[in-house]
């Protein structure tokens, strides 16, 4: 359990690991690469848009692309995903338009369009609350006799919240078809992983709940794909939940409002930069003859198009009506909220 499952070494060479498959069809290997590249490029575009005042905030996923895409890519489209706020790679695998993701960071009342139609729950900003939602949805599928599962995407910091413990315990007791996918990116804002748990690893906690715990190299997309596929197979067979710890790294600050230089150094960043998930996978694909210049050109062209579409949708878009903050709290607005709405609008009108 201590050593993460790894199919591709940081230098791009295949490892001796034989318990998990890496022999995916060439078209699947290329599709994974395409999602890696586009996720990183769009992630950079989101950061740029926030810096230009088009988004209120943004949480970058740079460095975690393989962990996200590998986990989501092996699932069925009918499997429900319960994300936190950093899962851009997951959203792109589910074909959620980048502009709909941007709406979340612009403060739209709906929290992002098109999520639920793609079997993806709305983004959970409160830490770990969605783990309980994932278990509840899994139990519902279980009782309805559906051949589906749920995945709760969470971080190392979220595993310190009480909701996570309740969710994992209940899932194990009920043998719910749920996978807890922890992206251990080493930092919970400014709190290091070493201060999050006393156990050897997060995966070790699984034994206390009565479920398997697996560690995987979160910068190895094929390993993430294989480990999630096996956990999904186990859930569908009625054998209950699995706790996966994907060991990765958050290369950017916690969000665009964070200054990470206050709590981590350049040497740590350089160490993890050498384990970059995209460069290692690119080397692997070239070595096995799958990645060609033609493929790379096509991927880059699609990335440019999607970034342009995102900018076109966001730049100059009208700001959300502040009244929406009050309109969608209850089915019928309360007198107190109505008064607060009127007061805020009066203050804004006076400032204008």
Automatic annotation (TrEMBL):
CDD domains: TPP_E1_PDC_ADC_BCADC (cd02000). Its cofactor is Mg(2+); thiamine diphosphate. SUPFAM superfamilies: Thiamin diphosphate-binding fold (THDP-binding) (SSF52518). It comes from the Bacteria. Keywords: Oxidoreductase, Pyruvate, Thiamine pyrophosphate. The keyword Repeat does not apply. Residues 36-319 form the Dehydrogenase E1 component domain. One of its GO terms (biological process) is branched-chain amino acid catabolic process. The keyword Coiled coil does not apply. Signal peptide: none annotated. Gene3D superfamilies: 3.40.50.970. GO terms for molecular function: magnesium ion binding; oxidoreductase activity, acting on the aldehyde or oxo group of donors, disulfide as acceptor. This is Pyruvate dehydrogenase E1 component subunit alpha.
